[in-house]
Design brief:
Blueprint: H1 6-15, H2 17-20, H3 36-44, H4 54-133, H5 148-158, H6 164-175, H7 211-226, H8 229-239
Helix pairs in contact: 5-7, 6-8, 7-8
InterPro entries: Lysozyme-like_dom_sf (IPR023346), Transglycosylase_SLT_dom_1 (IPR008258)
Region (Disordered): 90-136
Protein name: Transglycosylase SLT domain-containing protein
Length: 242
C-alpha cells in the first residue's frame, strides 16, 4: 500500500473529487491552502487517490471515514464533557443559593426568637418593678377599724395598677371587702378568704385586724400560685374558687 500523509491526502482528494465523489481527510481539521502555488507544492508531496492501486482505494477510503468518525466522536465527547461541567456548575450555584437562603431564614427566625424573648423579659421586669414600686403593708398606720372605702384605698396602693381590677373582682366575690369576714363552715377568713386564716400570719401577726396584712398575703398567694391576680381571677371564673 502506498504511503499517504494526512495533509497530502486531503489535497489529493480535493484534486480527485470528481473521481471519488468525496473529500478525504476532512476529519484531520486541516484546511486547503488558498494560494495556488501552495496547493501545487502540497500536491507535489501528496499521493493522489488515482495513483493508489484500485484494490487498495477502498481501504484508504475506509481509513479516512474511520478518521472522520474518530474526530466526530472526540468532538462529541468534548461537548458532552463541557455540558456535564456546565450542569455541575449550575447545580453547585443552585445548591449554594439554597444554603444561603436557608441560613438567612434560620438567622431571621433566631433574631425573631431573641426579640420575643427580650420583649418577654422586659415585660416581666416591668411587672416586677411595678410590684416593687407599690407600698408595703408596713407603711400603713394601724387603725382600730376600717371602712370598705379605706380598705379599697389601701389595696389600690399595694396592688399593681394593671392587676387591681382582677384582685378587686376576687375580693368582691370572696368577702365583699369585709376584712373580718369569716366562713362559718370552712373557717376561711378575711378579704381573700384564706383557708385556714392562720396562713396569713406569714405576712404579719395582725392578720385578723389589719387589711393591709391580708392584702399583702393575698397578693403574694395569687402571684406565687397563678402568676398574678389576673391569673387567679381567670382560674376563679372557671372554677368558682382559687
Amino acid at each position: 500500500m502506498s504511503r499517504i500523509s494526512v495533509r497530502g491526502f486531503a489535497v489529493a482528494s480535493a484534486t480527485a473529487v470528481t473521481t471519488v465523489g468525496a473529500v478525504v481527510g476532512v476529519a484531520s481539521g486541516n484546511s486547503l491552502p488558498a494560494n495556488g502555488d501552495n496547493l501545487e507544492t502540497t500536491a507535489a508531496d501528496a499521493t493522489l487517490l488515482a495513483d493508489i492501486p484500485v484494490g487498495e482505494q477502498a481501504q484508504v477510503q475506509v481509513a479516512s471515514l474511520t478518521q472522520q468518525a474518530d474526530a466526530q466522536a472526540a468532538a462529541a465527547d468534548t461537548a458532552a464533557r463541557k455540558s456535564a461541567e456546565e450542569a455541575a456548575r449550575l447545580q453547585a450555584a443552585k445548591d449554594a443559593e439554597a444554603k444561603k437562603q436557608a441560613a438567612e431564614e434560620q438567622a431571621q427566625r433566631e433574631a425573631e426568637a431573641r426579640k420575643a424573648k427580650e420583649a418577654e423579659e422586659a415585660r416581666e421586669a416591668e411587672e416586677r418593678a411595678s410590684r416593687s414600686a407599690v407600698r408595703d403593708a408596713g407603711s400603713f398606720s394601724a387603725q382600730s377599724s376600717y371602712t370598705i372605702s379605706e380598705v379599697q384605698a389601701i389595696a389600690r396602693q399595694m396592688v399593681p395598677g394593671d392587676q387591681f381590677q382582677c384582685f378587686s373582682n376576687i375580693v368582691d366575690h370572696e368577702s365583699s371587702w369585709n376584712y373580718r369576714a369569716q366562713n362559718p363552715s370552712s373557717g376561711a377568713y378575711g378579704l381573700v378568704q384564706a383557708l385556714p386564716g392562720t396562713k396569713m400570719a406569714s405576712a404579719g401577726a395582725d392578720w385578723q385586724t389589719n387589711p393591709a396584712t391580708q392584702i399583702k398575703w393575698g397578693l403574694s398567694y395569687m402571684n406565687d400560685r397563678y402568676g398574678s391576680p389576673c391569673g387567679a381571677w381567670s382560674f376563679w371564673q372557671a372554677n368558682r374558687w382559687y
